[in-house]
Predict the 3D structure of the following.
Amino acid sequence: MMASSYNAKEEDGHHPGSSNHGGTGPSSSKKPDNTAFKQQRLPAWQPILTAGTVLPAFFIIGLIFIPIGIGLYVTSNNIKEFEIDYTGVEPDSPCYICAQNFSWNSTTPCICTVNFTLQQPFENNVYMYYGLSNFYQNHRRYVKSRDDKQLNGDLNNLEDPSSDCEPYRKIGGKAVAPCGAIANSLFNDTLDLSYVESNGTLNSIDLQRKGIAWWTDKHVKFKNPAGSNLSVAFQNTVMPVNWRNPVYNLDPSDPDNNGFINEDFIVWMRTAALPTFRKLYRIIPKKSGAASTLPSGSYRLKIAYNYPVLSFDGRKRMILSTISWMGGKNPFLGIAYITVGSICFFLGIVLLIINHKYGNRSSSADIPN
Amino acid sequence: TDRRTFCLFLVPCPALQCVGEENCVDSRTVYISHKEPPPGTEAFIQQRFPDNRIVSSKYTFWNFIPKNMFEQFRRVANFYFLVIFLVQLIIDTPTSPITSGLPLFFVITVTAIKQGYEDWLRHKADNTINQCPVHVVQHGRKVREQSHKLRVGDVVLVEENEIFPCDLILLSSSRDDGTCFVTTASLDGESSHKTYYAVQDTKAYKTEEEVSSIHATIECEQPQPDLYKFVGRINIYMNNEPVARYCPNFNWPVIVLPSAVAIYTGMETKMALNYQSKSQKRSAVEKSMNAYLVVYLCILISKAIINTALKYLWQADPNRDEPWYNERTEAERQRAFTDFLAFMVLFNYIIPVSMYVTVEMQKFLGSYFIMWDDEMFDEELQEGAVVNTSDLNEELGQVEYVFTDKTGTLTENNMEFIECCVDGHVMPGSDSIDMIDTSPGPGARVSLASEREELFFRALCLCHTVQVKEEETVDGIKHGIHQGKSSSFYISSSPDEVALVEGMKRLGFTYLRQKDGHMEIINRDDEVERFEVLEVLTFDSVRRRMSIIVRSNTGSELYLFCKGADSSIFPRVISGKVDQVKARVEHNAVEGLRTLCVAYRPLSPEQYQQVSHLLSGAKLALQDRDKQLAEAYDRIERDLILLGATAVEDRLQEKAADTIESLHKAGMKVWVLTGDKMETAAATCYASKLFRRSTQILELTTKRTEEQSLHDVLFDLSRTVLRHYGGMTRDASLSDDCTDFGLIIDGATLSSVMRPNQQGSSSGNYKELFLDICRNCSAVLCCRMAPLQKAQIVKMIKASEEHPITLAIGDGANDVSMILEAHVGIGIMGKEGRQAVRNSDYAIPKFKHLKKMLLVHGHYYYIRVSELVQYFFYKNVVFIFPQFLYQFFCGFSQQPLYDTAYLTLYNISFTSLPILLYSLIEQHINTDILKKDPSLYKDIAKNSLLRWPSFIYWTVLGVYDAIVMFFGAYFLFDNTTFTSNGQMFGNWTFGTLVFTVLVFTVTFKLALDTHYWTWINHFVIWGSLLFFVVFSLLWGGIIWPFLNYQRMYYVFMQMLSSGPAWLSIILLITACLLPDVVKKVIWRALWPTTTERIQVGSDLNGQI
């Protein structure tokens, strides 16, 4: 009787089985596996971050971090560091003349001497750094401008360096070795340190040039091209335009410290992360016996001023520093640890209050519905 | 995701529509059995038609790669990365093309594999359809063919219950009258049996030989998608003489038995033409994702612009631009304006390349959990949930409006005769034959009541339109229902009638058949009674009743039996136990049963003369025939004597009420859209707890709008609702026990509400007003809905101001339109074929499974995807922001902070798996609690986890972490060493330090967010960190032919050999994670969400 208004909803011959073959879906006609994974019932640990559970963690973090921070801070404070800027910007500074009269073409180095006084003796090994400011070793064009394959002693790249080295790749058809902007701008000031005895005599301090570069760099990453004689190996190349000495003659004092494995060179080739940086220059080994490595007193720094920085508003520094297990003087880590530890401790107290005031409420609160 | 069965056939043209010769330009001529027409009649032009191959797959083996590449690069994100990649190839950029090429390749490959797999499934499905056997009549013999080999003009033999392989014209049928019964459910959703007639001139050809002898051509139009229109004509040649006819009774297609000729095949079938690829539904999450993407794109561009500007500013000083130590090459000097692009390339990683692929994989893999779900498996159907689109998983957690069909969705769609009430005596219908027989009144049978009872049964046996079908090889559910002696079963367009007739059979009166104008029934004493059918007063929806006038063969008494809705019978009743029956009817209606009243009127021969005179007069009327007929019916169907009432139950599905209650509690509004009549639908609503006893029902029905104008009714209702809510806001404390409103609206009223008014201005008002009312009602029932109206309603709600997320659920083909329209369409694997299932996004066996689908799966997927999206943006901000900061310290030279390997692998391997796994198996709350407490669903309503505040929180957190990492490393490196041998570190160590902190921080951040730590989580999270460490060691430490001189050589090892590096990594990770932990803990303590309270609660319970 309701025929016209009611869509017949009776079986119509299309019972599921007969029309099923139209469905392409992954319709499973079998009962799904009753595995914990498929039923999303894997056993699980269900942690919940509440004030109560986090509280102890905060106190523990606070209690661990603050002592570490204090330890780091004290260690950092015990490190002795001396820094002197010898750029020669000020007219009264000893290197002013050298800085002003700098010329790329001069053959004799301009020498200037800087006197300074160490108030406290430096114990143990003392590390001598040179520091540059406003020098963008991390500029993309600069970072890229090297040929690691050439530096690894590959003969093909020695004579045909990668195009990354442009415009320091070839001079007059001859490959530059080492090529690229980084090598070309190798820091070439020479720093000599002497102790000025009370009677005025200069006592030259022995500066060790070994161990300033990463061991892996010196022995694996950088390799000289094969050949018994370095000057022969490099005969088809020219030295970078700003260099005074060819690469096989960087360290006349030690034949094993020449070529690409010259440690000063390796140190320079590890581009610094920030525009103000320092690089390890020499190590002053600790003296045997009880004597300080660098006793307090006057010192004289003799500088062969070869490296121009004024053009780009840069600065040059010489740094003497002792080292602890945590490196050089850097109060940051200690302060940061103390800060974070204190914050955690403080938050722990705040959470304790919150937990006390609201914790009971929220856990015993009536769950709606 | 395109799936269908091709049970195709053509639907008849309702009226004869012949076109003149001149219009038949765009026509095709079909030669039945490929016989050439006799010479001279017309030129025999062999037209080429496609074969019957169904192609739903997108790719072939050959075009897969180019076509798939093309489609993938049409996506904005992929195209963007392609452009970046090309830019990197062309200009001098800071990073190597590998950094973006490799992830892109990875993404493209993964997507291609997924799509290839899906297409392979489609190929398989197509093959099943294409190879399904079809009987073709060739040279007088029946030949089995594969479906795809069918050609236009083939004569096809379709047997009972078979599916039509293509569009067909019915030539003849096994029935004498050339008719057949067909359901068109898969085409238009009407699942009633329709009668189709064979072409008059061919219906006599029955056997294969005869059919083969037909010599005819059919001219018809070229394929067009209109289902209801088919124009053509058949030319039959006898003895080579054309007997051309303008399709007199071109009541086409359809075929149950014999032969039919194929008209349209393959992709030209009406169904294929009607098959539109479903418009891509996009989830709200995806929309948020795209919005975020735009924000990040803006950030990216502004970063690049800022840096470019600063770079030019910085370069203004030539000593800074080109100091002596760092000169440009000639080429570089000439190249200009590439800086912006270079910065874009440097920062492009901020757009998470792998996010799309991860989201896609998450959805694809995640949807398996729905299919695997044990609880959504139905033992009876032997089927579990089906996922047709995995794109909408998380939308299941966002539903605000649920539109559900009634019959078959809320109810079982299994009509069962429950009881009848004769003269106030209630007689249970089922399992009751014994009861009747042994009932205390064998003696009462002879009484008046018994006479009435028999009359009542006779009335029900006679007053219907049920047809009897002889049982042959029919299988199916019907088989079980009647265990009676006769091997026939009933078909009717109304299942209620079938239920009634079958109910009568159980009570002892069996309707046998209609033969020669007589209806035969077997009474309780196994005697055949014959009644001559004199008149049938057919059913119409205005009268809502039908009548039949019969003459008993035994006594030659004349009876008018009338059956109809209570409201249309009672006013016409003059005697009978009206009150008792009325009470029973009302009782039953409230129980949710479908009730009918039965009455009769004995006619004297004179009265019959009068009646038949009236009727014939009306039937012969030339004008206003319908009106006159209605008047005649009205005059005939009066002075009735009430016999009783029947009750048929369409039982509610198991746990339907519970499910609806849960949905209500979860804050969803449930609307029932049904084609059923108001009373029944309302009863179902009560039964399913959609309406409660306390619900105040507002009616917006034709009945009311007849009394008042629509305008007034609407304003009345809105005043009621608004006054109520106005009062409520004043004393909100009372709101709990305030009555809520339920609205009932019918199709006719709805269409007048929706109809644009004559004055265009006020039309919008009605709609607005209506929406206003709806919004304030907790439940809405729309009855008497046409399928299209269902979709209209969904569309209207979708388009309303709040743009709520809608879900439509239904089982029948008449629900397809709304399933396609709603944000999420769910099909129920009901009895009405697979149409709804096929068009749905998800299909479940029963309505009750909706609860788990939404409350558990939807909730989980939403939580998972939102975390996935937020986390992806977060980890890329943390990744790229240090790089941005670094530009300020490297002269804006686009120097990357991280090594190429790290840039490349960060997104695709170091941080990809933990989040993917999180997004697959995270459970912030246990499944059981989610099911028990539907109100948790409200916590994630309105896309709450992906709103701008939380997005900004994540971004700020990312920026904070990036600043901590970068400046932490910066101060550590500040002009000093942190090794114990005094050696210095370079820029790559700096980057590696930041990167190490970065990888650990983002992984730990995810670990902190994980609430569900299975062994897989442990494995993946710690495993991916371990992988990072091992990779870094290998990449930088192992002596390898080319690795020993690359820039990362030994950098990682050197860093780890220094104590302060370790200390600072620990410190920075702690500092990065601290704010997030504190925020979480404090928020949870001070402003806990329901979810968080429950988490704590369950945690405590667990501890106890």
